[in-house]
Structures are given as structure tokens and as C-alpha cells.
Amino acid sequence: MQKIMSESNKDQRELIHMLHDTQKKFGYIPAHSISQISRELKISESEIFGVLTFYKAFVLKPRGKHLITICLGTACHVRGAPMILDEFERKLGIEAGETTEDNLFTLETVNCVGACALGPIAIADGDYHGQMKTKEVDEIIKKLKQEKSKNIE
Question: Which domain holds residue 47?
Fold first, then answer.
């Protein structure tokens, strides 16, 4: 955190840049960082929190090793995205916006990913899975778990 602080101009216009750097370092924005940035830039913590909650790019809780995102935009919704989401929630034992206890998976939703013709879409660690069916959920989870075991070896 000291490096991020020392590289900034201590200018309030640097706020978003500092938040991005902080998230890059920790994988999320820890509470202690908000306090440090507040003191450094002389901005209230509530103002910083307002920025953090306005932009979807910022995360206030640690994420799992694997990020699964379900598109709930109109095209995906009418093609069954809520059922895909329900299946992921059931299989992972968490709800959207949560992380599994083992910190392996985080499940999120978005309003649109801009690939409406491929809906419903699940994005697993950046890989788009279009025209999803509930029966494919197990396969995606299994593949991500196998990647974990490969990384351990």
C-alpha cells in the first residue's frame, strides 16, 4: 500500500487510479486501504465508498480463485438464464454475489455482456459459454476444479 501511496500525486483526481492499483494488489479493496486513501487524499471515507459502490469494477470482498458470471440481460433472461443461475447456486451452495467457503468460486451476475445472440451466457474465468443448458453447469464446475488440482501439482 505504501508503494501505491508514494506513486500517487496526492491529488483527489488520482482516486480511481489508486483504487484500481489497490484492487490489483489485493484482489479487492480492503477496509484499511479505504482509510489510508482517505487520509492521503483528504477525502472522506464515505465519498470513497460512494465511488466504490457506483462502479461495478470495484470489489469490497475477496473473490474466489474462479469467477463465474451469469448474464441476466433481457435476451439471456428470456432464454433461461435464471435457471442457469439457480443451477450454479445449487451446485456451489452459494447465492449470486457470494464466494464458496473454500474460496474456490465466486458467483456473480451482470445485466448484459453484449453477446445477446449467444444467450444465455455463463462466463467462467473469462471463457464465454453461450447457449448454456443447466446440464452443462456440472461440466464447467468440474473443469474449473481440475484446473485447481493441476495448479497444486
Answer: 2-54
